[in-house]
Specification:
By secondary structure, the chain is an alpha+beta fold. It has a domain at 102-221. It contains 5 helices and 5 strands, in the order H-H-E-E-E-E-H-H-E-H. The strands form 2 sheets. Strands 4-1-5 form a 3-stranded antiparallel sheet. The longest helix is centred in the C-terminal third of the chain and has 35 residues, at 142-176. The two termini are 26 Å apart.
Length: 221
């Protein structure tokens, strides 16, 4: 009875996992930024094939500083007549035309995305493996432990690769915008996925402890 309850909960997690995955993919594919990025990448590829002297590069959501932390008032003609709206620019999208530069940032970002895709595939595999292990009373096995460790390492590696690519992009933008009056914030490391990766590695160690205890009990018997 208890096994059935656990398997039922895992089945609900499968359903939730696929729903979230489908929503995430649809959000990306139907997002206007994705379409713009796809068109920009297609245009860049055409220009590179034609071997033009200047190729167009697009840099999205680059963090910028506003002088004196100023807010600019926006005129509003809506029904809220007594409401004042002010805005501050914190990110900018840049379109740069220049001779071909290093593609290290694009390469790192691509590898980062591939790591994340691998994580999603392994999450599905580990959920199936755990479900199968529950039926055989062998949840704490080395196969599950290895998969969980790989997922944790890939999470951390993906985050670091993406941050590295972002660092290259932002430093390049800092260099080419000198003297323009635009102040770009230096790149920073995102800790969210790193913390998730560490948490997953902790879970892997908990599984490893369970495996060790189970093996010791076998020898005791």
């Amino acid at each position: 009875m208890q096994k059935r309850q656990v398997i039922s909960r895992l089945n609900l997690l499968y359903i939730a996992f696929f729903i979230i995955l489908c929503l995430g993919v649809s959000k990306v594919l139907f997002n206007s930024d994705f379409k713009k990025g796809f068109n920009a990448g297609f245009q860049q590829g055409i220009e590179e094939m034609l071997d033009k002297k200047k190729i167009t590069y697009f840099y999205a959501s680059i963090p910028v500083e506003t002088p004196n932390n100023e807010f600019h008032q926006i005129e509003s003609n809506n029904e809220f007549t007594n409401t004042t709206i002010s805005a501050q620019t914190t990110v900018m999208n840049f379109k740069v035309q220049s001779p071909k530069i290093s593609s290290n940032a694009n390469l790192l970002a691509t590898v980062s995305v591939l790591c994340y895709l691998t994580v999603f595939i392994l999450l599905f595999v580990i959920m199936l493996s755990i479900r199968k292990s529950i039926k055989t009373n062998d949840v704490f096995n080395m196969n599950n432990i290895k998969l969980i460790r790989i997922i944790g390492v890939l999470f951390i590696a993906s985050s670091l690769l993406f941050d590295w690519a972002r660092y290259i992009e932002i430093n390049y933008m800092i260099e080419i915008t000198k003297g323009t009056g635009i102040v770009i914030n230096p790149a920073s490391i995102s800790l969210n996925d790193i913390l998730i990766g560490i948490l997953i590695l902790v879970i892997a160690e908990i599984f490893n402890i369970g495996y060790t205890v189970t093996e010791e009990q076998k020898f005791t018997i």
